[in-house]
Amino acid sequence: MEQLPRTPSFRLDGQRALVTGASSGIGQGCAVALAEAGAHVVLAARGTERLNRTVDAMRSRGYRCEALVLDIADVEATQLAIEKQPPFNVLVNSAGLAIHSPALDTAVADFDTVMNVNLRGAYFLTTAIAKRLKASGGSGSLINLSSQMAHVGGVDRAVYCASKFAVEGFTKAMAIEWGSAGIRVNTLCPTFIRTPLTEQTFDQPERVAWIKEKIKLARTGVVEDIMGAVVYLATDASALVTGTALLVDGGWTAD
Q: Is 232 among the residues known to form the active site?
């Protein structure tokens, strides 16, 4: 009988995943998606209360998960925390922030705040996870939440765009360095997703009109739009995918 190919697994049974920014929004959705796929998920965030509520809610559904209070802007504390953990097979770095203003009005303090999380924190978290993974001889998938704004420009978003363009750059370089060790590194690039972080934008009618004009599917995104994509990148379904960006942007960057 003809031997037919089989679809690679979309499961993560027996694997450990770390999701930062996991107490709400996209990070929370990613944590749930990975847990549904069978991973033991460590949810990390700066605030304890919302983080624990999310973990409790996930455990009530039977998911294997735990909380880790972590501020990735504190590189030294983050590295120490990762060293104390067993190696992670999957990283979803969803911690991030945005401070929008016209480029000519950018305050140095605001620039540094954004870069310390979106770029510096993301960079050293990724290397900390990879170092532990390489030392264990394991393979894995490291995913940095980037943005469609890492591929285009936007009014009042010069600092945010700069941080995310930089994430795309180091992701490609790390993918090249670690590919032979079986460690894949990619970015996941959403369009505007309704979360607590983006409510400020969605409260501005002129911004919403701009967003809907750009998104070819004529709707804004919801967290569920990201969940399937992160499972794909985390699992063997994307075993030959590294050093690239998965755009979940409703066609924003198509023109």
A: no
Look at the chain and report how many structural domains it folds into: 1
Domain limits at 77? Answer: 16-248
Task: Provide the pLDDT for residue 204.
Answer: 82
User: Side by side, which strands form the sheet with 40-45?
Assistant: 65-69, 40-45, 16-20, 90-93, 140-145, 183-190, 245-248
Mean pLDDT of 31-47: 97
Q: Is residue 45 part of a domain?
A: yes
Q: Which of 63, 123, 160, 232 is catalytic?
A: 160
pLDDT of 199 strictly over 80: no
Write the burial class of residue 53 (CB in 10 Å: 0-12 exposed, 13-18 middle, 19+ buried).
middle
**CATH number for the domain including 161?**
3.40.50.720
Q: Is residue 46 part of a domain?
A: yes
Query: Structure pTM?
Result: 0.95
